[in-house]
UniProtKB/TrEMBL annotation:
Native organism: Carlito syrichta
Segments passing through the bilayer: none
Pfam families, per database record: Fanconi_C
PANTHER family per the UniProt record, alphabetical: FANCONI ANEMIA GROUP C PROTEIN (PTHR16798:SF0), FANCONI ANEMIA GROUP C PROTEIN FANCC (PTHR16798)
GO cellular component, one term: Fanconi anaemia nuclear complex
GO biological process, one term: cellular response to oxidative stress
Name of the protein in question: Fanconi anemia group C protein
InterPro entries in the cross-refs: FANCC
Length: 639
């Protein structure tokens, strides 16, 4: 159905629901209708400026025609579509003929007024296929005006040659000047403040955002997109079109445009669905990326701009809620945990780059956790001599133990909230496991408790004590073997299976494997038997992935912390390469392909991934917006 048929059908239907009283314009009605008929006939005569006489007549009458377009815009913005159809049934013809006339469209003022008129006709909530087609047709004209102006036609070539320039040079200059003019006008609005006489009307800002929807990927329009995103009027409600936010966000996620961080922050703060979609987009990229590759995960996360934008607490809290939800839905998958830790590290780095002193209190980022614990966890290990790493580890353990078991700070959300905060900074747990294997480790009981809590936060005091007893036996056996003259793979396997004669708890098994893997890297006896031990221990695909994840995380952490361990690093890289080769020979797997066993036990069951992850992402699409927004409202944080 053409737009002309649509206008005729709407008029025949006799629908006359008006948003504003038409009687207020009655005095000018006759004059505007008369002018309308005059210019419609003129446009037909000009017939796309096909003759020299028509070109001269167009140039002669252009100022008056632009004035007519201004009056049309003033009338259209006060009318709904049905009233427009009743009064101007051939308006589609007039607008189309205007758009197709290059001598009219060559002037940026004509383009600007014409786009306003077109935007007035776009139905924000189309109710039927006819209105949808009309919207599509109008957006096509808008796109034509600013992005598809044809300079290859004969008339335009003659026109631009007369100006002494080529068509290729003409249009970009017009578009850039128009965009710069609008950007300047928007920025002046900030300076004008409450001076209503000089402020841009909200309706005009809304129209600009509508115009930009089909044009957001044009490089020349990017300054206007940025200016609109960072523009804040004094209206209590959002003044930009929702579809504008959606179009910009989609283009940004697909790398069709690049925007500075302040503009992205404004986009995600002003339009929560865009933030949720950006986070889901990141999750979906991680799902299909290579499993157990922290460097690739870090590249994806940094490329998303989410860590930089998360310097604003509202954005951090929403993204953090989505990580929490996914972690619980996947029953604590280690890859999800690793991704959250990488995100947190990138976020902290961005926070440090932004300023040395926090703009917002830590409480705004972690409202359900102890501020004192957050301060300790935020310490950078690189700022502490390695010989003194046991001190912050002991402090962290005592703080957590006091909160979890003594419940002296129960107001901070209970054991899970304490664990969730600690899990953001999981490298402290990895460092604790390494510290335990030192011959004269300080505060081993505190470190054991810290690891037992990390790997099973839901356990009660009695269960955690049992886990510590079991792991202590494994640790004692490993330390004894480190002083032996020779150590075989069978000896190490037996040590890791020290808990096998009882009914071992899953956390004890996980911790035993983690201590064994550290032993293989950190002790000379362990390094000599590393290859044979891995062959015995990694007897399933899942155990192989667990070992790969451990080695990859360890090498990345050593590099980041500047740990000099050439022999251990060489063994780790060789083992990692061999394990990757082993995996490649078998079935190909992707990130989060199975729920690993070497992870904190958050729930029961072993639901495989990516099925679990797909379900989690689907559930996020439905629920996480409500959860995140609810959390922010409860905390009094306004988006």
């Amino acid at each position: 159905m053409s737009v002309y048929v649509f206008f005729s059908a709407q008029r025949a239907a006799g629908k006359r629901h008006r948003l504003f009283p038409f009687s207020e314009m009655a005095q000018d009605s006759v004059h505007l209708s008369s002018d309308y008929q005059f210019w419609l006939q003129k446009l037909s005569v000009w017939d796309q400026a096909s003759t020299l006489e028509a070109q001269q007549d167009t140039c002669l009458h252009l100022p008056q025609f632009q004035e007519f377009l201004r009056k049309m815009y003033e009338a259209l913005k006060e009318m709904d579509l049905n009233a427009v159809v009743e009064r101007f049934p051939t308006l589609g013809q007039l607008l189309a003929k205007t758009c197709w006339n290059p001598f009219i469209l060559a002037y940026d003022e004509s383009q600007k007024i014409l786009t306003w008129c077109l935007c007035c006709l776009i139905n924000k909530e189309p109710q039927n296929s006819g209105e949808l087609k009309l919207n599509s047709w109008l957006q096509g004209l808008l796109s034509y005006i600013l992005s598809a102006f044809r300079f290859d036609i004969k008339e335009v070539s003659l026109f631009t040659q007369g100006l002494g320039c080529t068509p290729v040079d003409c249009y970009p200059g017009l578009l850039k000047n128009m965009v710069l003019s609008l950007v300047s006008e928007l920025r002046e609005n900030h300076l004008n403040g409450f001076n209503t006489q000089r402020r841009m009307a909200p309706e005009r800002v809304l129209s600009l955002s509508r115009v930009c929807v089909p044009l957001v990927t044009l490089p020349d329009v990017e300054p206007l997109v940025e200016a609109l995103l960072t523009y804040h009027g004094h209206e209590p409600q959002e003044i930009l079109w929702p579809e504008f936010f959606e179009a910009v966000n989609e283009a940004f996620l697909l790398k069709k445009i690049s925007l500075p961080t302040p503009a992205i922050v404004c986009l995600w703060l002003r339009h929560l669905p865009s933030l949720e979609k950006a986070t889901l987009h990141l999750f979906e990229k991680l799902i299909f990326s290579e499993r157990n590759c922290l460097r690739r995960i870090e590249c994806f996360i940094k490329d998303s701009s989410l860590p930089q934008a998360a310097c604003h607490p509202a954005i951090f809290r929403i993204v953090d809620e989505m990580f929490r939800y996914t972690l619980l839905e996947t029953e604590g998958a280690p890859e999800v945990l690793a991704a959250m830790q990488v995100f947190t590290r990138c976020f902290v780095e961005a926070l440090e780059r932004e300023n040395t002193q926090l703009k917002f209190a830590l409480k705004t980022y972690f409202p359900y956790a102890s501020p004192s614990l957050a301060m300790v966890l935020l310490q950078r290990p690189t700022d502490i001599p390695p010989a003194r790493w046991h001190q912050p580890l002991t402090h962290i353990s005592k703080l957590l133990r006091e909160m979890v078991e003594d419940q002296t700070q129960g107001s901070h959300g209970g054991p899970f909230e304490s664990w969730f905060l600690f899990a953001h900074f999981g490298e402290w747990a990895d460092m604790a496991a390494e510290q335990l294997l030192r011959p004269e480790a300080e505060s081993p009981e505190d470190l054991l408790w810290l690891l037992a809590f990390y790997y099973s936060p839901h356990d009660g005091r009695q269960q955690r004590t049992e886990t510590m007893v079991e792991v202590r036996a494994v640790l004692s056996h490993l330390l004894t073997l480190s002083g032996s003259a020779t150590v075989s793979a069978q000896d190490l396997q037996a040590a890791a299976g020290e808990i096998g004669h009882v009914d071992p708890t899953p956390p004890a098994q996980q911790l035993a494997r983690r201590l064994l893997l550290n032993f293989l890297l950190w002790t000379p006896r362990g390094r000599t038997a590393a290859r044979d031990t891995i062959a015995l221990v990694a007897h399933t695909a899942e155990m192989t992935h667990e070992a790969i994840g451990f080695l990859d995380q360890t090498l990345c952490r050593w590099q980041r912390l500047g740990i000099d361990a050439p022999e251990a690093g060489l063994v780790a890289r060789e083992l990692l390469q061999e394990l990757h080769t082993c995996i490649q020979r078998g079935a190909q797997t992707t990130w989060m392909s199975t729920c690993g066993s070497g992870l904190p036990r958050l729930g029961q069951g072993t639901r495989p991934l990516p099925v679990a992850t797909s379900l989690a992402v689907s559930a996020l699409r439905t629920h996480v917006g409500k959860v995140g927004a609810h959390r922010l409202r409860n905390a009094g944080l306004v988006l």
